[in-house]
Amino acid sequence: MAQQFDLLLFDNFSNHCLANTVEPLRAANTVARRILYNWRFLTLDGAPAVSSSGLSVTPHGALSDGGGDLLIVMPSYGFRDLDNRAVTRPLQQARSRYTQLAGFDTGSWLLARAGLLDGHQATIHWEELASFEETFPDIDALRARYVISGDRITCSGAMAAFDLVMALIGEAHGPLITVEVAQIFMTEASARAFTLAPSPGGRMVDRVLHLMQDNLESPLPIAEIARRMGCSQKLLEVRMQAELQGTPNAIYRRLRLNLARKLVAETDQTVAEIAGRCGYENASALTRAFKVQFGCTPRQLRKGEAW
């Protein structure tokens, strides 16, 4: 069943924070080829909210209409003007309608004022962290990009919002999908900055992914990848299975096919040309693998006959 995320916007919200929250969810739906996430934009009264840069968002409804898996409170700038009962009371009333509550950017302050973070660990935009810690002594304030504390989630700003949403996607649907979503957004340089959650094998696996991504056109044998990592092929397989829940061959194939899907959707290159760029001998070999992975052929995708 798809998860329902509601985003509560206020005037002067951050476009950057909003995009970094919603776009990974949209990409996860695309990668999965099914609806994993639905989202709605809400305001307190159902009236439009205008961002700090002048973007007006017409919401799907008022906070009183909302309910679901996660409510994300996103005020960003001017949050101190919202520190009053007219805001905190509706948040308290909404608590019972959501499985989890989240404060993004400065939204942590409003949740804290409503008493919804008491006894939890939490973070906020670091410029406000000292004041947050002094004002709300019943909260364990942390200087962290994001904090998941039971059914309360907080993050420190727009860039952290992307990392947090990626973590939520990975927790719900497995770590490999986060790699696939990251491929959609990141250039080669920024992809190298993307790391998996810390774990004993995480650094090695991250290096393996980078090596695979650098060699999609001429795939390396798994034995050669292991040699370059300075480990046995067996150890490499164990680490990849533990971190990404797949064999090195399966993960390498998915990375190559994800590139093929991107090229099919976004370029006018022939299937034969795309096959060559993705390490397949010919168009027929790519088409067979593509259909197994995505449930349609490259030509069907290009004609809009598949989601």
Automatic annotation (TrEMBL):
Pfam families given in the database record: HTH_18
Gene3D superfamilies: 3.40.50.880, Homeodomain-like
Entry keyword annotation includes Ubl conjugation: no
Domain of life of the native organism: Bacteria
Molecular-function annotations in GO: DNA-binding transcription factor activity; sequence-specific DNA binding
SMART domains in the record: HTH_ARAC
Annotated transmembrane regions: none
Sequence ranges assigned to domain HTH araC/xylS-type in this UniProt record: 206-304
Assigned keywords, A-Z: Transcription, Transcription regulation
PANTHER family: ARAC-FAMILY TRANSCRIPTIONAL REGULATOR, HTH-TYPE TRANSCRIPTIONAL REGULATOR RV1931C
Protein's recorded name: Carnitine catabolism transcriptional activator
Species this protein is from: Tritonibacter multivorans
